[in-house]
Design a protein that fits this description.
The protein is of the alpha/beta class. The chain is built from 11 helices and 13 strands. A 7-stranded parallel sheet has the order 3-2-1-4-5-6-11, with helices on both faces. Strands 7-10 form a two-stranded parallel sheet. A two-stranded parallel ribbon has the order 8-13. Helix 1 (12-23) packs parallel to helix 2 (40-49), helix 5 (95-112) packs parallel to helix 6 (148-165) and helix 7 packs across helix 11 (321-337). The two termini are 32 Å apart. Bound molecules: UDP-4-deoxy-4-formamido-beta-L-arabinopyranose (WQD).
């Protein structure tokens, strides 16, 4: 059974990916520094798959520690690298914290495995900025990032592409996520935002459960059907399954190039008001919201062209907006009864 290292495996997307890797017959070992996640998630994963994944608390910025780990774990056949800081707003306030953490961890990881590695890298549609053409394909040009967080994703992709170009033993797949939302159908794992959620869907569920006040819709004067901004929301379980497909492709050695990029979205855009409407329809809960000014740094509209992921990865998102909303709501209700 192939053993996969998942860095950041106690996080939102990481934990769902650990579950799907097990479902696909892989063994998993998790590295996480627990700076932005809760170790209780390991028990929750065990409750879903019946096995407690091997876990090592480790900061990937500690070069000696990750080298020691790699020396001890020669049986790792692939790595999925989620571990990174990802709060857009915080990155603007603390750029050096973001550049140091997100680059040191990536470079240390590759060096620890002597650049002989099958690596799936967690990237983001944020690299496109506001695309000129929609839906946006992987061939679209990247644009100057709106935040240090987004810049770390762009530069990390360049680091990987340039290293792969001169390192045949390094095989990398960068996955550009659109907007991951929702939770596992068991409601045992889901998103655990720290403090006031910056992202739309966790704010919606916390507002609905009474933890927050009304939602502010950041702008309804965009050039979109209802004036609110458009994003391509994707169920976190669909996203997790795409990581299994990416690992399988790397193991198959089918790729002509040792560096590939894939969009992970549904190929469908939804406005903020449509998300609010879908939440109300799928849960029966009435939401309070007000229209506020646009949020600095937001783009107007983006959704992905996912043809390449479907034709090359053999993956396609299956879950729609209503299942994203109902699973997120069930998770919020679970948290109320079972606070972490
Ligand atoms: C979605 C839409 C907001 C909150 C960011 C990162 C991206 C990824 C996902 C890490 C926007 C609107 C939001 C609210 C609102 N992060 N909104 N009221 O900004 O598209 O993407 O998170 O990987 O890299 O850039 O996601 O959920 O913050 O916003 O109206 O209270 O909802 O303006 O149009 P975003 P989001």
């Amino acid at each position: 059974m192939s053993k996969i290292l998942v860095t950041g495996g106690t996080g939102f997307i990481g934990s769902h990916t650990v579950v799907e890797l097990y479902n696909a017959g892989y063994e998993v070992i998790i590295i996480d520094d627990l700076s932005n996640s809760n170790p209780k998630i390991l028990d929750q994963i065990e409750a879903i798959i019946g096995v407690k994944p091997e876990f090592v608390e480790l900061d990937l910025c500690d070069e000696a520690k990750i080298n020691e780990f790699a020396d001890k774990h020669k049986d790792i056949s692939g790595v999925i690298h989620f571990a990174a800081f990802k709060a857009v707003g915080e990155s603007v306030q603390q750029p050096l914290k973001y550049y140091r953490n997100n680059f040191y961890s990536l470079i240390n990881l590759i060096n620890a495995f002597n650049s002989s590695l099958k690596l799936v890298f967690s990237s983001s549609c944020t690299v496109y900025g506001q695309p000129d053409v929609l839906p946006v394909t992987e061939e679209a040009p990247t644009k100057k990032a709106e935040s240090p967080y987004g810049n770390t994703k762009q530069i990390a992709e360049e680091i990987l592409q340039e290293t792969c170009a001169v390192t045949p033993s390094l095989k990398v797949t960068s996955l550009r996520y659109f907007n991951p939302v929702g939770a596992h159908h068991t409601s045992l794992i889901g998103e655990l935002p720290i403090g006031v959620p910056q992202n739309l869907v966790p704010f919606i569920t916390q507002s609905a459960i009474g933890k927050r006040g009304p939602i502010t819709v950041y702008g309804n004067d965009y050039n979109t059907p209802d004036g609110s901004a458009i994003r391509d929301y994707i169920h976190v379980v669909d996203l997790a399954k795409a990581h299994v497909a990416a690992i399988k492709r790397l193991e198959s050695d089918k790729a002509e190039s040792n560096y590939e990029v894939f969009n992970l979205g549904t190929g469908k855009g939804s406005t903020v008001l449509e998300v609010i409407d879908a939440f109300e329809k799928s849960t029966g809960e009435k939401l309070n919201y007000t229209i506020g000014p646009r949020r600095a740094g937001d783009i107007e509209q983006v959704w992905g062209d996912v043809t390449k992921s479907t034709e090359v990865l053999g993956w396609k998102a299956e879950l729609g907006l209503e299942e994203m909303m109902s699973s997120a709501w069930k998770w919020e209700k679970y948290l109320k009864e079972n606070p972490f």
